[in-house]
Write a structure and sequence with these properties.
Elements (H helix, E strand, L loop, with lengths): L1 H4 L2 E2 L10 E2 L6 H9 L4 H7 L5 H14 L11
Length: 77
């Protein structure tokens, strides 16, 4: 998992410091939104050819790490 997480970078000069994939301007949030909208890995990779399969796994690994908290709170939609 650590190899995957290394693909997620945070730089205040890129995308306002949001976590992105490999220093590119693909925020983790956007990829999660694409996946939650029903896009498949294949569809994302077809639409964004500079992304790699491992990048998408890295986004999921990063999201999983963020859920490792002692308390959780309801998010209002």
């Amino acid at each position: 998992m650590e190899n995957l997480l290394a693909r997620i970078t945070i730089d205040p000069d890129i995308s306002h410091g949001k976590p992105v994939i490999r220093g590119m301007r693909y925020p983790v949030q956007n990829v999660l939104e694409w996946l939650s909208s029903g896009m498949s890995f294949d569809e994302i990779l077809e639409d964004y050819p500079d992304l790699e399969y491992q990048d998408l796994l890295a986004v999921l690994a990063y999201a999983a790490k963020l859920t490792e908290v002692k308390h959780s709170y309801a998010i209002m939609a």
